[in-house]
Specification:
The protein is mostly helical. The chain contains four helices and no strands. Helix 1 crosses helix 3, helix 2 packs antiparallel against helix 3 and helix 3 crosses helix 4.
Length: 133
């Protein structure tokens, strides 16, 4: 483990993870993301207010889910920190896949980079609502 159990960052992340409403906050973020996904459409005018709002909400939700993954990785370890490691859970693998593909889709989606085909990775966001089940 890179961070000792007494490391200040790991201690703070553990406090956040053990906060009684942490899971509720994540569930609310999943609901917001799900509603946003249902509103968003590739047929919407990219310059419309609706498209800009859904894009902004999606960026915010991706940031929330990325922060959640980072907190859990810092506290639990990534893979090789025993049976409780972050990627030892099937749901965490789905979460991690969703976060990584969301980040890749934003990093590679600018038209200047010539990597606009990365937008297809955004379709993996539909896995977020599965976490509620």
């Amino acid at each position: 483990m890179l961070l000792d159990s007494r490391n200040w960052l790991r201690v703070k992340c553990k406090q956040i993870l053990e906060y009684s409403h942490f899971d509720n906050i994540v569930i609310v973020a999943i609901f917001i993301s799900t509603i946003n996904l249902s509103i968003d459409s590739p047929l919407n005018d990219p310059a419309s207010t609706l498209s800009l709002v859904t894009w902004s909400i999606d960026i915010a939700m991706t940031a929330v889910f990325t922060l959640e993954a980072v907190i859990k990785i810092v506290v639990l370890g990534f893979v090789f920190n025993g049976g409780r490691s972050y990627l030892r859970s099937g749901w965490s693998i789905i979460d991690f896949l969703t976060v990584v593909t969301s980040l890749v889709s934003y990093i590679g989606s600018s038209d200047e980079s010539g990597l606009s085909f990365f937008k297809i990775f955004r379709v993996v966001r539909f896995l977020r609502p599965l976490r509620i089940i």
